[in-house]
TrEMBL record:
Pfam families: LRR_1, LRR_8, PK_Tyr_Ser-Thr
Any one GO molecular-function label of the UniProt entry: protein kinase activity
Region (Disordered): 845-902
Membrane topology recorded in Swiss-Prot or TrEMBL: Single-pass type I membrane protein
TM stretches of this protein: 443-469
Residue ranges of every copy of the Protein kinase domain listed in the record: 520-805
UniProt entry tagged with the keyword Aminoacyl-tRNA synthetase: no
Compositional bias per record (Acidic residues), positions renumbered to this chain: 893-902
Main location: membrane
GO biological process: defense response; response to other organism
Name of the protein this chain belongs to: Protein kinase domain-containing protein
Keyword Ribonucleoprotein found: no
GO CC, alphabetical: plasma membrane
């Protein structure tokens, strides 16, 4: 052997001598010891002459050998085959590596090394930085001596048959960056010393049998980009410390036995793209504030757990989302209507099957190229756009095959106090109240009533109605088509009038009320409302409720509870606070019981004391927009779907209640009354010198016209934009001053202006700023001092649903306005009023116009919009000068919807 060896060395050096004609062989030639070690390795592993020809120099002639300064630095025998003899008795025999003192990398992946990892491997090769033994048929346990490879940076042992516990000595590998132990049969706990592996960027222990908990110390791996612990039997909860992994891109904890909820603290995972926690025992609700921070998410798997509650809207509108699996949980709630702007229809795929989602299929499904919605409780018809790209089996959908039974659907909806559309057929005797999604139908009836009866009849009718409302005669209005008589003008119907108690929930006993509220314990008092005190309570089944206690002795509006009861007996809508029942058995005290709204009212949610250290936490913009849309939907229902139209008369932030998913439920309904007449008839009211109701939206006395609600809603919108609490609840001089100061910062010509009044706690990027701007514009048009010029609620809703169209497709887009009829009319409604209010504002004293900050910015985009004949008018940055040209900039869109406009 040694003979052959030295002969080879000789031949080799002779070769070099011939080639270069010099004797400096040292520089090129491998040391004797290293060459010897390589030959030993060659024979112990049974490598073939094809790759490692014995006669040539290893550094230059052997496949997979790299040398540096005459020392072997890398060995790559990946995928090599053994000699016939070698494969007869293959062994993991690599002792010779110990004499390769400069070896930095050993890659034997896909090379059969059956047997355990030799103890010695870890002791000799202190220089080793990369050890790749993937798919080598290794068995046995990992020797603790691997922890002596103190230079190791990458260690791959994946896809073998390694068993036993992980040696804690691996925790000594300070420089380790990649640790891949996946696809073995390792057992036991993840050793505590592992948390010292601070340099890890990749940690993959997936598909083993590791148990116990995920060590919270993993949170210290500040460089970790990839963490995969899936397919083990890890239990306990997800440690919130994982949220400290701010570099993490992939997190896979799927297919374990993890329990508890998804910690909100994961918000720190700012770079996360893949979140996989499917197939565990996780439960509870998804933290709504989690997803605004995880904006890079592409791949989300929450399926096959026990999550319940609603899905935060944001999850649907994550900008990069392309895979969403929520299947087989206990999620419930309605789909959001639409995803926020900036999310394009994409190739994304979603699976939300086997949950308890309900309500209509909304345009949100268009965000996905395919969505499996089967096994839920969706109702209504299937939109054309959703056909073909959805799996819809086992729901409650109209005209679809393979749906749940009528009873199953009805029971589901009834259990949740929801209205089921009964597959679009007239419902059975215990009839649910009219359903909300029949807007068009009702609008048509409404329109035909007005069209048909004619002006004179209308005028007479409205005069009569006004008298009814103001004189508190309480005579039921006979015109009702869908709602029927409603209490007019705050006047209750005569006590005991024909209330339909079958729609009024449960009749609670006084005893039950006492028990629920802890005998009206002061601790349970939520607020002293103007129509009664509100108490928090808990019904026997543990259902949280709010009880309104109406003290007939002291309350000024004693009978308002009757009108509220009457209202609830006639209306029902997902945007109205759920009414659970009443207790009328006492003479002097009456009680109304509502469902408790977990997120309270808007003022208490807008700024919440955060449990984290940074004090106050404010609602993000997307939630604010959602709340605005929700409230607008509720008001739309009252204004446009009830006949006669109902005026809320108490629209303010505290009337906007929020459920667990920040879905709006309108409350404070004790003031609701029928509208005195349609807006354009108010002139008649004025002519007849009836009590003043118009042009004084801010007067503070609730007015019985829808435009009054619109005005108040404008203040709520401003509150959402500016974060200034209390605007909508006051109408005093200070508030008016504030409005006068604020409104000039809202201009359709200058987006940047609005940043001066923006809530400083909002984190807004350029896209969102356009939405904020749009909402501010809508708010301003609602706040038109002239009631008749405020937009109708339904146009406000449209505008809020399409905020970017408010600001983008405005002026030069008149072409588009014409082609899209519906948008034409809402845009006209908002901007028509804008035109007017712009002129009004242009007339405010110059001193106020000048109040803008000195750093008055010129907006590039709006500048170009305003270009053309008046382009330079914007140049001086004075919005007021541009406003004068609004007539040219907003040409009257053609109104193709005259039939539905009143
Ligand atoms: C190679 O060896 C020479 C002299 O022995 C030394 O100066 C040089 O730093 C070495 N290079 C490397 C990369 O180790
Ligand atoms: C290792 O060797 C295999 C087989 O010769 C080759 O395909 C592969 O590219 C090598 N890998 C590296 C990292 O050098
Ligand atoms: C390492 O080299 C020394 C001599 O340099 C030799 O005695 C020893 O046997 C070698 N060890 C292995 C494992 O090759
Ligand atoms: C080892 O070799 C395989 C096959 O060429 C390659 O895919 C792998 O990346 C190598 N391992 C390392 C750590 O470079
Ligand atoms: C290997 O590491 C252990 C500590 O884990 C140490 O006690 C032992 O001495 C080391 N062995 C060698 C040969 O360095
Ligand atoms: C490991 O981390 C230490 C400090 O945390 C650092 O000094 C060292 O360079 C890192 N090693 C590698 C290979 O990144
Ligand atoms: C985690 O590992 C499993 C099995 O090794 C693999 O299927 C899965 O794709 C990995 N997860 C991620 C996020 O890469
Ligand atoms: C799902 O949630 C409902 C309440 O919303 C609960 O009654 C039911 O037990 C839950 N189902 C599971 C499987 O957790």
């Amino acid at each position: 052997m040694v003979d052959r060896l030295s002969r080879a060395v000789y031949i080799f050096s002779a070769f070099f001598f011939l080639l270069f004609g010099c004797t400096v062989e040292q520089q090129f030639q491998i040391s004797r010891a290293e060459r010897f070690a390589l030959l030993q390795l060659r024979s112990s592993l049974g490598l073939r002459a094809k790759e490692w020809p014995i006669k040539s120099d290893p550094c230059s002639g052997w496949v997979g050998i790299q040398c540096l300064n005459g020392s072997v630095s890398e060995i790559n025998i990946s995928g090599f085959r053994r000699t016939k003899r070698g494969s007869l008795n293959p062994r993991f025999s690599v002792d010779a590596l110990r004499n390769l003192t400069f070896l930095a990398s050993f890659n034997a992946s896909n090379f059969a090394l059956p047997g355990p990892i030799p103890e010695g491997l870890g002791l000799g090769v202190a220089s080793l930085r990369v050890l790749d033994l993937r798919s080598c048929l290794i068995n046995g346990s990992i020797p603790s001596t691997l922890g002596n490879l103190s230079s190791l940076v990458e260690l791959y042992l994946s896809t073998n048959d390694l068993a036993g516990a992980l040696p804690s000595s691996l925790g000594q590998l300070d420089d380790l960056s990649v640790l891949d132990l996946s696809r073995n049969a390792l057992t036991g706990l993840i050793p505590v010393p592992f948390v010292d592996l601070r340099n890890l960027t990749v940690l993959d222990m997936s598909l083993n049998r590791l148990s116990g908990e995920i060590p919270p110390g993993i949170g210290r791996f500040s460089r970790l980009r990839y963490l995969n612990l899936s397919g083990n039997i890890l239990s306990s909860s997800i440690p919130p410390q994982l949220g400290d992994l701010s570099s993490l891109v992939d997190l896979d904890l799927g297919s374990n036995s993890l329990s508890g909820s998804l910690p909100l603290d994961l918000r720190g995972l700012r770079n996360l793209q893949r979140l996989v926690v499917g197939d565990n025992l996780l439960s509870g609700q998804l933290p709504g504030n989690l997803f605004p921070s995880l904006t890079r998410l592409k791949f989300v798997v929450l399926g096959r757990n026990r999550f319940d509650g609603g899905v935060p809207d944001l999850l649907w509108s994550l900008p990069s989302l392309d895979f969403l699996d929520l299947s087989a949980n206990n999620f419930t709630g309605m789909l959001p209507f639409n995803v926020s702007a900036g999310v394009n229809a994409s190739s994304a795929v979603a699976n939300i099957s086997q949950n308890s989602f309900y309500g209509n299929i909304t345009p949100v499904v268009r965000r996905f190229s395919f969505i499996d919605m089967s096994g839920n409780f969706f109702e209504g018809s299937v939109p054309i756009s959703a056909r073909g790209s959805t799996a819809l089996g086992m729901n409650c959908l109209q005209n679809s095959s393979n749906q749940r039974s009528r009873t199953e659907c009805a029971t589901f909806y009834a259990e949740r106090n929801l209205v089921f559309d009964n597959f679009g057929e007239p419902s059975a005797p215990p009839s649910p109240p009219p359903k909300s999604n029949k807007k068009d139908h009702k609008a048509l009836i409404l329109a035909s009533v007005f069209g048909g009866v004619g002006l004179i009849a209308l005028v007479i009718f409205i005069i009569v109605l006004c008298f009814i409302c103001k004189r508190k005669t309480g005579t039921p209005n006979q015109r009702g088509i869908s709602v029927g008589p409603v209490p007019a003008g705050g006047s209750p119907p005569p006590p005991g009038a024909s209330l339909n108690f079958s729609n009024l929930g449960d009749a609670f006993t006084y005893q039950q009320i006492l028990q629920a509220t802890g005998e009206f314990n002061d601790a349970n008092l939520m607020k002293n409302g103007h129509s009664g005190d509100l108490y928090r309570g808990l019904l026997e089944g543990g259902i949280p409720v709010v009880v309104k206690r109406v003290d007939l002795d002291s309350s000024a509006k004693k009978e308002s509870y009757m009108s509220e009861l009457d209202l609830f007996s006639r209306i029902s809508h997902p945007r109205i606070v759920p009414f659970l029942g009443h207790c009328l058995e006492n003479e002097n005290e009456k009680f109304l019981v509502y469902k408790h709204m977990p997120n309270g009212d808007l003022p208490s949610s807008l700024f919440k004391k955060a449990d984290t250290e940074d004090g106050l936490q404010s609602l993000d913009w997307i939630t604010r927009l959602k709340i605005a849309i929700g409230a607008a939907e509720g008001l739309c229902y009252l204004h446009h779907e009830c006949v006669p139209p109902l005026v809320h008369r108490d629209v303010q932030a505290s009337s906007i209640l929020l459920d667990d998913k920040f879905e709006v439920r309108l409350g404070s309904l004790s003031e609701v009354c029928a509208q005195e007449g349609e807006i354009h008839q108010n002139r008649i009211t004025r002519l007849l010198r009836l009590p003043q109701t118009t042009d004084s939206g801010a007067s503070g006395t609730p007015n019985a016209i829808c435009a009054y609600d619109v005005y108040c809603f404008g203040k709520v919108l401003l509150e959402l934009v500016t974060g200034k609490l209390g605007i909508s609840s006051s109408s005093d001089a200070a508030m008016k001053d504030w409005l006068e100061m604020t409104l000039p910062y809202i201009s359709i010509y200058d987006k940047e202006l609005v940043t001066n009044i923006l809530d400083p706690s909002l984190i807004i990027d350029e896209d969102l700023l356009e939405e904020v701007w749009a909402m501010a514009i809508v708010a301003r048009s609602c706040l038109n001092p002239k009631a008749t010029r405020r937009p109708l609620m339904r146009y406000i809703l449209k505008a809020l649903e399409n905020p970017l169209k408010v600001v983008r497709e405005d002026n030069s887009g008149s072409e588009r306005l014409r082609t899209t009829s519906s948008r034409g009319s809402w845009n006209a409604a908002v901007f028509g009023s804008w035109r007017q209010s712009s002129i009004d504002v242009a007339n405010v004293p110059a001193s106020q116009k000048m109040e803008g900050p000195s750093s008055f910015k010129q907006s590039g985009t709006t500048g170009s919009q305003g270009s053309g004949p008046h382009g330079d008018a914007n140049g001086n940055g004075h919005s007021s000068s541009a406003r004068r040209h609004s007539r040219e900039i907003f040409p009257e869109p053609l109104d193709e919807e005259e039939g539905t406009r009143e």
